[in-house]
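User: Could you go from structure to sequence for me? I need the amino acid at each position, not a summary. Structure tokens:
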């Protein structure tokens, strides 16, 4: 493993401008050190304006006010009254802003000449410095990276204050965590350089790895054990470690394994489901350094761990890591920025490599770690297509059209003698996507024209939009009352499998009734993607049904997401040495099916990234979408074009490369030779300034939500990595529009769905 360089600039994420790591990208304040104060007042440590008498200095606090407006995304100076001498950087205060009392966070405390213009702080909410300098820097960088506001990100980073809990925690603020011994490699011993990675972490190093966890129930596929070993090695060096997982289910799984391996009270969990008091208590315990290992969901990426040594992230492609609130940061980006700021190691672990991680591997920022080919064949289950040869098709003539070909029944019957069998179905519910049996017209609601569904065998048809029942439905095209269901949900699959395998218990895990674990006794488990329970000792077999339906989703990442879900299901099956088998119900010549059969996740990720680079899609480029009503989006497009044109004119006036006064400098107009510019897509403005492709505005398809009154429009912007100019321009235009009190629009950098 290659230890991460110590300087933050060298360890910055590829695609993240170095100025972002320093907290000063986009023309905004660097970590809150350049405040704009009310007219006539000065910054901290500044001098009085020329012509004004020099007054005695007074204590002043730079406060970031809780206001989500782009033109106010900067700290403001407030005078500290004599009664609030305990004000310190990081504490919460109340201030008067624009005639209203608002919350704020103190970024810096100093002195400035008293000009009688500074308003005093209204109230000191808490003396506890919950906003550490490291967290300030992380929040500022994430906000700039997403073209968002500090106030929006700080709400994601800091839990709401709980006064009673805070008072109780202050009494044991200086507690010290117990020391942790360096672990003996168990899971990592199977991987090349795995033992070296643990040695580097235990010695204070900061390796960066993309760990491709072998899919299978063998010891080499124990991702929880591997991450705990890495965290324990980091903690043995006196540093702290953070483990990020997608959901509370995985948090509980990691915490249970950690307690078994390291003992109770060594690690602490942090997530929103804890409740206000418990969540704030654990946040303060982490802030005080009571725990060396923290396990949490996406919000825990901002945890204020002192002396951070490792950030480990499981299944980074999971959509639960994408924040649904502005400015929509992804936990993968936050984790990478946090590790780069702290000079810490980072491990992205998953059974399928995402294109974002693949890009970091190709740039050399991450070192790939995976089993050699022989180890994969030994520790992974055998994956086959249901109809993979001409002889199989001859034996089962209906194999390409039947939902469950003959091979599925053969494999399931043989595997049930060994243990449980998993069926992964793409959808929950019972009968979905209903159409007319005679004319194939879509079955829709007569009121809102939404799609109809049947939730159980004896239930009447109901609308998925408005919920209206249709007990006597007839086709509006041909008048027939007969229906067909192209899509069978998990409920329907349970019934069909119960009839096909009489005497075998069939269990369902989907929706609100999700199983966490099943025993070793023979049974059939029908689960939707992401709801598959773990089986003691692993499943004897798994059947991946309706592969084509998983790929039919209209999204850029549909293939990548489908493959991720399939690999996670395959990872629950016993290895080939124990006769573990997986049957894929899809065409064997499809590239994505071949990736499963060959156990070649890296090859698929590399091909997918190359195709996106050629087409100009993330993560090969930075993409920004501006969504809203037609008028505001068109106005945003006009202002952005003017902003970029003005910036391009400034660059044109720069001296040639190497001719600037004061020494040789690189030409700011010269593109980064390591970043290939994307091709210009159809419909884009080829003369767009600033190296940014501007596509649109264009009307979006009508929403399925009947509450939406007007059609939305979208403006799409694209720039080569790192995209600092694009983010800065978008932020400046948003500030101009906010100052003019114009209608708001939604700004998303690299949206999760395209």
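Assistant: Here is the amino acid at each position, in order:
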């Amino acid at each position: 493993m290659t230890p991460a360089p110590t300087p933050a600039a060298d360890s910055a994420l590829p695609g993240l401008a170095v100025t972002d790591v320093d907290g000063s990208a986009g023309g905004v304040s660097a970590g809150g050190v350049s405040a704009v104060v009310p007219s006539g007042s000065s910054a901290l440590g500044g001098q009085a304006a020329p012509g004004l008498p020099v007054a005695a200095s007074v204590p002043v606090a730079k406060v970031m006010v809780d206001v989500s407006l782009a033109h106010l995304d900067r700290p403001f100076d407030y005078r500290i009254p004599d009664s609030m001498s305990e004000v310190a950087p990081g504490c919460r205060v109340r201030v008067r802003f624009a005639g209203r009392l608002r919350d704020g966070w103190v970024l810096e405390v100093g002195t400035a000449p008293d000009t009688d213009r500074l308003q005093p702080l209204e109230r000191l909410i808490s003396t506890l410095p919950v906003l550490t300098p490291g967290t300030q820097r992380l929040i500022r960088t994430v906000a700039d990276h997403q073209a968002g506001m500090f106030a929006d990100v700080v709400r994601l980073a800091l839990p709401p204050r709980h006064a009673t809990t805070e008072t109780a925690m202050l009494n044991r603020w200086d507690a010290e965590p117990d020391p942790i011994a360096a672990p003996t490699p168990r899971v990592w011993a199977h991987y090349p350089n795995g033992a070296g990675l643990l040695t580097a972490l235990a010695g204070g190093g900061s390796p960066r790895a993309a760990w491709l966890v072998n899919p299978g129930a063998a010891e080499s596929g124990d991702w929880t054990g591997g991450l705990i070993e890495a965290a324990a090695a980091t903690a043995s060096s006196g540093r702290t470690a953070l483990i990020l997982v997608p959901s509370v289910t995985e948090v509980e799984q990691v915490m249970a394994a950690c307690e078994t391996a390291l003992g109770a009270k060594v690690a602490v969990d942090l997530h929103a489901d804890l409740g206000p008091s418990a969540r704030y208590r654990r946040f303060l315990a982490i802030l005080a350094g009571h725990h060396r290992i923290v396990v949490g969901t996406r919000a825990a990426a901002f945890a204020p761990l002192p002396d951070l040594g490792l950030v480990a992230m499981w299944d980074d492609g999971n959509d639960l890591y994408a924040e649904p609130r502005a400015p929509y940061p992804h936990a993968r980006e936050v984790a990478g920025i946090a590790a780069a700021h702290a000079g810490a190691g980072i491990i992205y672990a998953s059974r399928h490599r995402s294109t974002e991680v693949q890009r970091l591997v190709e740039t050399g920022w991450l070192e790939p770690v995976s089993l050699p080919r022989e180890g994969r064949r030994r520790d992974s289950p055998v994956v086959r297509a249901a109809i993979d040869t001409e002889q199989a098709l001859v034996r089962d003539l209906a194999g390409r059209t039947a939902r469950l070909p003959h091979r599925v029944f053969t494999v399931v019957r043989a595997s049930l003698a060994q243990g449980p069998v998993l069926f992964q179905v793409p959808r929950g519910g019972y009968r979905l996507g209903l159409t007319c049996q005679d004319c194939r017209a879509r079955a829709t609601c007569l009121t809102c024209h939404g799609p109809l569904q049947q939730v159980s065998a004896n239930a009447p048809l109901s609308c998925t939009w408005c919920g209206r029942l249709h007990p006597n439905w007839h086709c509006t095209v041909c008048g027939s009352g007969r229906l067909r269901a192209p899509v069978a949900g998990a409920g329907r699959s349970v019934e069909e499998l119960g009839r096909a395998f009489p005497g075998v218990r069939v269990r369902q895990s989907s929706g609100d009734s999700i199983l966490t674990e099943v025993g070793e006794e023979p049974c059939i488990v029908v689960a939707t993607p992401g709801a598959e329970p773990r089986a003691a000792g692993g499943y004897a077999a798994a059947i991946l049904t309706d592969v084509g339906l998983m790929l039919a989703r209209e999204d850029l990442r549909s293939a990548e997401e489908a493959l991720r879900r399939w690999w996670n299901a395959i990872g629950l099956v016993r290895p080939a040495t124990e006769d573990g088998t997986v049957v894929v119900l899809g065409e064997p010549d499809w590239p994505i099916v071949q990736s499963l059969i060959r156990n070649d996740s890296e090859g698929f990720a590399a091909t997918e990234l190359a195709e996106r680079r050629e087409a100009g899609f993330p993560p090969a480029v930075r993409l920004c979408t501006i969504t809203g009503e037609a008028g505001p989006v068109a106005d945003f497009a006009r202002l952005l074009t003017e902003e970029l044109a003005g910036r391009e004119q400034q660059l044109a006036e720069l001296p040639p490369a190497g001719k600037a006064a004061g020494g040789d400098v690189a030409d700011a107009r010269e593109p980064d030779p390591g970043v290939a510019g994307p091709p210009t897509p159809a419909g884009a403005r080829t003369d767009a300034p600033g190296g940014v492709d501007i596509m649109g505005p264009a009307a979006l398809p009508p929403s399925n939500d009947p509450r939406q009154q007007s059609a939305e429009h979208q403006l799409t912007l694209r720039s080569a990595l790192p995209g600092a100019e694009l983010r800065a321009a978008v932020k400046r235009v948003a500030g101009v529009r906010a100052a003019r009190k114009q209608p708001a629009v939604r700004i998303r950098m690299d949206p999760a769905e395209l």
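One structural detail worth keeping in mind: The chain is about 30% helix and 20% strand.
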